[in-house]
Amino acid sequence: MLSPQQAGAADELRQSRREPLSTNSILFYFAILNLLLGLGSPAGLPAIPIAYFLKDHLHLGPLGLATFTAAVSAPVYIAFLFGFFRDRFRAQLGGDRGCLAIGSAIVGGCYVMLAAYGSRLAPLIALVLLATIAYMLVIAAAQAMLTTVAQARLMSGRLSIIQLTGYFVPQFLAALAGGWMVTHVSARGTFLIAAAIILMVVVQMLTSADPETALDMSPSTAPERSLAAIARLARHRPLWAAAFIWFLWNFSPGWQTPMFYHLSNTVKISSAAYGVFNGLFNVGNLPTMLLYGLACRRAPLRSLLLWGTIIAIAQGPIMFFAQGTWSAMMVGAMGGILGGFPTAAYMDLIVRSCPVGLEGTGVMLSTAAYAVAGNSGNVFGSWVYAHGGFAVAIIVTTLATALIMPLLWVVPPAIVATREGESLEF
Fold first, then answer.
1. Could you tell me if 313 and 398 are in contact, meaning their C-beta atoms sit under 8 angstroms apart?
2. Which distant-in-sequence residues (6+ apart) come within 8 Å of 226 by Cβ?
3. Could you tell me if 396 and 267 are in contact, meaning their C-beta atoms sit under 8 angstroms apart?
């Protein structure tokens, strides 16, 4: 039995969890969550060690490695289904925090199993695929929670930056740590470290205050049927416009394989320099994302999208200035700097455009669009590069980005008419 002092402390803790969090607490909550999820993702910290393990120990060639990646990444292409599952069954799973705890526990369990049985190809494929499926439920709940809080608290701009930072920073840290871990940590140790990171999400869900506290999460009418929810999603024009803009922005056929071959074969930079180039590109996004965090509270989203798209169009042509190692480094940093502001603006648009009650489906639709755009753009860009060279691939990339401009006029004016902190009416 608890003493009176212990009971009083427990009551105070429960009460603190019911009280709405401050703005800074919300930003900190999602910053920690997204950092843990980014590092603990199957595509995060374990990715580079897994690739080297497949190449050096299981002796997979390029085609085998590409096939493995395609197989375990398959759930990402249907990410919106995981979002729909969250929207329909979140109450039965204990809310978003329950989804996060359950899914993270499964991912962590898969990593522990990989540490024990991941030395053979078949168990490795099965467990990484299961971890990816569970992770998609986790990311659906996390992004839907962020979207719900962003819409209710009128914080779509700053929380969009937090969400994107949870991608770029872990990618940078995973690239640095992953390469080091290949030579200093065994595959078993890598999986156990990844398990410890993702299981910290379970700890956060069980011990921290709920950012959705004081939000009206209960429907005012009878529960919506699945077909009715799908029909409402199909009619929600703002989301489809935002998803298509996101697709075009991430299509970028000249920025993946063509850039790799151009920099390594034509510019002739080293593999180490190419790694630095990618690191600078990822880190370069952060300053202008932070700048967006200031701008979104001072200017309406319409203006930010317009200027962001103009900046985005300028990103492609700067690749022509990469003529040597040092100029390539400068181009990598400048490419990231030019990309940060429009990326934040487009994510802000997605967060604002998600329909109420279908936040998971809406935000995961953008995740699917990102995956399809990246892979289809890479294949198409490789074909363009093989037939027309790098210059044509960059021109096609620039034209694809320019197509975003007319799409901005398709977005309903009410979505983009306000600054962060002002109510949306649509």
1. yes
2. 88
3. no
pLDDT tens readout for residues 228-237: 878 888 888 8
List the beta strands (DSSP E) in 122-162: none
Q: Which residues of the chain have pLDDT under 70?
A: 1-20, 62-63, 66, 175, 178-179, 182, 214-224, 271, 424-426
Question: Dihedral of CA 419/363/32/312: which sign?
Answer: negative
CB-count exposure of residue 305 (10 Å: 0-12, 13-18, 19+):
buried
Distance CA 288, CA 415 (A): 23
Nearest to residue 424, comparing CAs of 354, 366, 347?
Answer: 354
CATH superfamily for domain 233-416: MFS general substrate transporter like domains (1.20.1250.20)
How far apart are the C-alpha atoms of 13 and 274, rounded to whole Å?
50
Amino acid at 78: I
Tokens 């105070």 correspond to 12
Domain limits, the chain = 22-207, 233-416
Q: Establish whether domains 22-207 and 233-416 are of one fold.
A: yes
The answer to whether residues 210 and 17 touch, using CB atoms and an 8 Å cutoff, is yes
Query: For domain 22-207, is the CATH number 1.10.760.10?
Result: no
Please choose, from the candidates 71, 359, 77, the residue with its C-alpha nearest in 3D space to the C-alpha of residue 215: 359
CA distance 232 to 36: 33
Q: What's the pLDDT at 146? A: 92
Count CA atoms within 13 Å of residue 325 on its CB side: 9
Nearest to 68 by CA among 125, 119, 135: 125
pTM: 0.79
Residue 300 burial (C-beta neighbours within 10 Å; 0-12, 13-18, 19+):
middle
